[in-house]
Design brief:
The complex is a heterodimer of chains A (502) and B (497).
Chain A lengths: L8 H10 L4 H19 L2 E4 L1 H16 L11 E5 L26 H8 L3 E6 L33 H8 L5 E5 L6 H7 L2 E4 L20 E5 L2 H11 L17 H7 L6 E5 L9 H16 L3 E5 L7 H16 L20 H12 L2 H13 L6 H24 L2 E5 L15 H5 L6 H6 L2 E9 L6 E8 L4 H19 L16
Parallel strand pairs in A: 2-3, 2-4, 7-8, 7-9
Antiparallel strand pairs in A: 1-3, 4-6, 5-6, 5-10, 9-11, 10-11
Helix pairs in contact in A: 2-3, 7-8, 8-16, 10-12, 10-13
Chain B lengths: L7 H7 L1 E11 L38 H13 L3 E2 L6 E4 L9 E4 L6 E10 L2 E14 L3 E5 L11 E5 L6 E7 L9 H19 L11 E10 L10 E4 L4 H20 L7 E6 L4 E7 L9 E2 L10 H8 L6 H12 L3 H9 L3 H9 L4 H19 L10 H12 L5 H12 L5 H8 L7 H14 L1 H8 L6 H11 L6 H12 L1
Parallel strand pairs in B: 11-12
Antiparallel strand pairs in B: 1-9, 1-10, 2-5, 3-4, 3-14, 5-6, 6-9, 7-8, 10-11, 12-13
Helix pairs in contact in B: 1-4, 3-4, 8-9, 8-10, 10-11, 11-12, 13-15, 13-16, 15-16
Classes of the chains: A alpha/beta (502), B alpha+beta (497).
Chain lengths: 502, 497
């Protein structure tokens, strides 16, 4: 394994800019690593080595010519397969889009390419971002590099596993109910869901428009901040994007000073149903922050108990509408068009064949929740709960600068364990959902390994809207103190993956 | 299948009709409601599309500010209140010409509501109350091929054109229109015509029914008398001419009256209008209609027009068409009948501009409603599409009044202008059309005419002055029409007096 693979994105970028190593070498090392381990990990759905190397050489040429390059120029990256990019398929982990080549770049993609990042390929995900294990991908599950018999989280399991398996130093995820943070927690990596409207959704194939948000995934807090800086900011193509300066996340990530910060522990996010090792590592992390000068208080957000119910009405409602466009008329899969069937019959056959079970389940739930006569009881009530959750956050943020909780109640479970138990699967998002419903910023940082099974645990930090910098400040403090305790990054302890000789 | 109908007068003796009109107006903004694609009519299929209006995965809408302003101006011109805060909603249903399988539309939060439009029904005023005016996007167009009807039923395949997908529409919905009595068909027509005039004055739409930029759905119900609650209504879709609006109301009244009289209940349904037979037939029944599962559009932010913005737009409103017609009729001294001709021939703006260019109102009317209307009719174009400007028409009239040309020559001048021969003065010059008032040339022609018609000359000498007409005719013939007839008459009388 090339030692370049263990460098941070910040180190790689500095080395490329200084001419210590070329982007082509860095990119080739990662492509070789993908070649060697991805047959087992299956973090990627699509890899385009030629394109990546070409992009890498373009950055090298700029550096050689003495032209200025961005702070992450030449660094390889994996893009979740729910964001469009010209010249590559965007499948969303669905049969429905097996061969769909979008004719346009998502705004996030465009910003990455303009900043000189080298896209290695598209990462695996639960179909249309519906799931917490990546087992709902139509192209097979991703495996957790800590234990390849276990799930890597979801929906962005591919983006998280690629980091933990050293296949990429940076990846992009999207978070609707925890799809960046929960995979980060169970793979020992960093994942940030920016404030809703902080990053553009243009070109992100929508699951639930009022909840979705693209964000950075990385192995270190500073790398996540540098990537955040590249992709964030107002986009006139996304009406819900916020027209305000991006919070200074990079400075916050470099600082890590939490002295005097008021940190609220959310009473409702813990206790029964939480693994002992998860609670233990979380408590230790809070104590650590306290030791660094933060003021720790307990806060109550009683409406969070209703978040799961509200989320599983709002998300499927929006999804049922967003996914209506997959009808075989203009793009994607078409089934049964033999010249004898009507357009309606072809639509039905295509949607029957193209969508997996979880997608159908949510379309049915959402269609029902929006139906005349049920709307007020379901969608309407869920929106009221959403307002209550926002109020709980507002009240808590009056007392605290940030809130903290475990990211997810358990460590990664064995593949297949919850496939037939949707409710158990949904509970993995208990702690992460409230921030999607309220639209505030939230992140997951590594908190260590659970003593009982030696698997990763994440701590979640939540900040008010457009105070994303506070996430990085707390994350950096934790990272610094814990790395010292562990005697090196947590991922140094990950078992060696069996490499396939090239 | 022909429905039994009742005579119209008989129907009105037993029933009180109630109308409801839903008019869709395509705005004439340069770009679509939610993307930058062109809205130009008639481009090759699917050449004015992008990821947004094709509903490609990941694409997102951005509201067209001009369309919102047009909607607010329409609302204000209809006397509506403008919402302080409103949203778009998604109307969910599957149809191949609707790319996202939902239409982004306003639902329970329209941008404008509670207004009215005063219309003129054969000289009588009638107030139509407006329920709401809301914004939405148009669908694409389906062309069903291989069947006999052009409808999807029986077609072998369908072609889809998404150029129209996302074109901004404003839907204007009336409150139930009661109290029309037997005048219901005329009220319906007068309302749609008045709305057309208003939208044209606002310059927000092409308002061409034949191109579909103004489309009308007509709701009709009957009740036995005005104290009864509203009856079950039918909605006749896409009635696309003023005449058809009137005819479809009349037909539905007679059809429903026949059914109700024999004790059959009216089915709440949409109906198709058949221009050729003047009848309607059932479309889909509302009982099995889809549940549109409306919910607020999460990809767009609410629109909250500030008071300043609303007032700025209010200041841009044109004079209401009815008021303007009344004012101009008085200023110009036209009769009611003359004014109606002017309006129906689409000459009002043109005459106003001609008068502004210095022409008296009556000759301006005479040229536009007479000679020019005839020529427009011959060439099958609209009056305002003729290749002559109001200023040029005023110039022609000036030439007439200065005696440079007579009425007959003036028509030839107009012909020249329309043929692209230049300004009226240039046509006079180029065609040599000026009347001759040079006494030398005229005198010679008069002498020649007297010599050629001695008997006529004798009568005039004998005091029969009215006989001069025959000599004038001969002189005009000699001068090939280019003579000042008044001067010719003077010369004849001088010579024979």
């Amino acid at each position: 394994m090339s030692e370049l693979l263990h460098r941070t994105a910040a180190e790689l970028a500095a080395g490329i800019a200084a001419g210590e190593h070329s982007s082509e070498e860095v990119t080739r090392a990662h492509l070789d690593r993908i070649e060697a381990v991805d047959e087992v990990v299956h973090a990627f759905l699509h890899v385009d080595g030629e394109r990546a190397l070409e992009a890498a050489r373009a950055v090298d040429a700029k550096v050689a010519a003495g032209e200025p390059v961005g702070p992450l120029a030449g660094v390889p990256l994996g893009l979740k397969d729910v964001l469009t990019m010209r010249g590559a398929p965007t499948t969303c982990g669905s049969r429905m889009l097996r061969d769909w080549h979008p004719p346009y770049d998502a705004t996030v993609t465009r910003r990455l390419l303009e900043a000189g990042l080298v896209v290695l390929g598209k990462t695996n995900m639960d179909e249309f971002a519906m799931g917490s294990s990546t087992e709902n991908s139509a192209y097979g599950p991703t495996r957790n590099p800590w234990d390849t018999s276990r799930i890597p989280g979801g929906s962005g399991g591919g983006s998280a596993a690629a980091l933990a398996a050293f296949e990429a130093p940076l990846t992009i995820g999207t978070d609707t109910g925890g799809s960046i943070r929960q995979p980060a927690a169970v793979t020992g990596t960093v994942g940030v869901k920016p404030t809703y409207g902080g990053t553009s959704r243009y070109g992100l194939v929508a699951l639930a428009s009022s909840l979705d948000q693209p964000g950075p995934c990385a192995r270190t807090v500073l790398d996540a901040a540098l990537l955040h800086q590249v992709i964030a900011g107002h986009d006139p193509l996304d009406s819900t994007s916020i027209d305000a300066p991006v919070p200074d996340v990079v400075t916050a990530a470099r600082s890590g000073d939490v002295a005097g910060m008021r940190i609220g522990v959310v009473r409702e996010l813990g206790g029964e149903g939480y693994a002992p090792g998860v609670e233990q590592r979380f408590t230790e992390a809070v104590e650590l922050l306290s030791g660094l000068g933060a003021e720790v208080v307990e806060v109550s957000c009683p409406s969070f108990d209703a978040a799961l119910g509200a989320y599983y009405l709002i998300m499927p409602s929006e999804a049922s509408s967003n996914l209506a466009r997959f009808d075989a008329m203009r793009f994607g899969l078409r089934v049964g068009d033999d010249g004898t069937r009507s357009a309606e019959e072809v639509m039905n056959l295509t949607r029957e064949a193209g969508f997996g079970a979880e997608v159908k389940r949510r379309i049915i739930i959402g269609t029902y929740a929006l139906s005349s006569g049920y709307y007020d009881a379901y969608y309407g009530s869920a929106q009221k709960v959403r307002t209550l959750i926002k109020r709980d956050f507002d009240a808590a943020f009056e007392r605290c600068d940030v809130l903290v909780s475990p990211t997810t109640p358990s460590t990664p479970w064995p593949l297949g364990e919850r496939v037939d138990d949707p409710l158990a699967m949904y509970k993995a998002d208990l702690c992460t959902l409230p921030s999607n419903l309220a639209g505030n910023a939230a992140a997951s940082f590594p908190a260590g390994l659970a003593p009982e099974d030696g698997l990763p645990v994440g701590v979640q930090v939540m900040a008010p809207p457009m105070a994303d910098d506070r996430l990085y400040r707390v994350g950096a403090a934790l990272e610094r103190a814990l790395t010292e305790q562990w005697g090196g990054p947590l991922l140094n302890r990950i078992p060696q993956l069996q490499e396939v000789s090239a | 299948m022909t429905a039994t109908v009742m005579g119209y007068e008989e129907a009105l003796r037993s029933f009180d009709p109630v109308l409801g009109l839903e008019v869709h107006v395509e705005l004439s903004t340069r770009s679509k409601m939610f993307c930058g694609c062109s809205t130009a009519f008639g481009a090759p299929p699917n050449t004015q599309t992008c990821p947004v209006c094709l509903g490609l995965p990941g694409a997102m809408p951005v509201v067209n500010r001009t369309a919102v302003e047009s909607a607010m101006r329409i609302g204000l011109a209809l006397g509506c209140s403008i919402a302080d805060w409103c949203r778009f909603a998604r109307k969910n249903y599957f149809y191949p010409d609707m790319p996202k399988n939902f239409q982004t539309s306003q639902y329970d939060e329209p941008i404008a509501f509670d207004g009215f439009l005063d219309v003129d029904v054969d000289g009588e005023p009638f107030r139509v109350e407006i329920e709401r005016a809301h914004m939405e996007e148009d669908t694409g167009k389906s062309l069903h091929v291989g069947g006999s009807t052009g409808r999807i039923h029986g077609a072998s395949h369908s072609l889809l054109d998404y150029n129209r997908s996302g074109v901004p529409l404003i839907e204007i919905v009336t409150k139930p229109i009661t109290g029309t009595g037997a005048r219901a068909p005329e009220v319906a027509r007068a309302y749609v015509e008045a709305l057309r005039d208003l939208l044209r004055a606002l310059d927000v739409s092409d308002v061409r029914m034949e191109q579909g930029s103004l489309r009308c759905d007509v709701n009709v119900s009957l009740r036995t008398d005005p104290t009864q609650p509203l009856g079950t209504r039918t909605e006749t879709k896409n009635v696309n001419s003023f005449r058809s609006v009137e005819r479809s109301v009349r037909y539905e009244i007679t059809r429903q009256a026949a059914l109700l009289s024999e004790g059959t209940a009216i089915t709440q349904e949409t109906r198709h209008w058949h221009e050729d037979t003047g009848t309607t037939s059932p479309g889909r029944s509302k009982e099995t209609a889809e549940d549109y599962r409306y919910f607020p559009e999460p990809d767009l932010v609410p629109i909250a027009p500030s008071r300043e913005w609303v007032e700025q737009l209010r200041a841009t409103l044109p004079e209401p068409p009815a008021e303007r017609r009344r004012r101009l009729r008085e200023e110009w001294g036209y009769s009611e009948l003359e004014m109606r001709d002017v309006v129906s021939s689409g000459a009002l703006d043109l005459i106003e501009q001609t008068v502004a260019a210095g022409c008296a109102p009556q000759p301006a009317r005479k040229w536009w409603v007479g000679e020019l209307a005839r020529r427009a009719n011959e060439s099958g174009t609209e009056l305002d599409a003729l290749a002559i400007t109001p200023a040029q028409v005023a110039e022609v009239q000036q030439l007439v009044e200065a005696g440079t040309v007579n009425d007959k020559l003036a028509r030839q001048v107009i012909e020249g202008v329309l043929a692209g021969e230049g300004s009226p003065a240039e046509v006079v010059e180029g065609r040599g059309l000026a009347v001759v008032s040079d006494d030398g040339a005229l005198g010679a022609a008069v002498d020649k005419a007297i010599a050629a018609n001695p008997d006529v000359a004798e009568k005039i000498r004998g005091g029969k002055v009215q006989a001069a007409g025959a000599l004038i005719g001969a002189v005009m013939k000699e001068m090939r029409g280019q003579a000042d007839a008044g001067r010719v008459r003077e010369l004849i009388l001088e010579k024979l007096g």
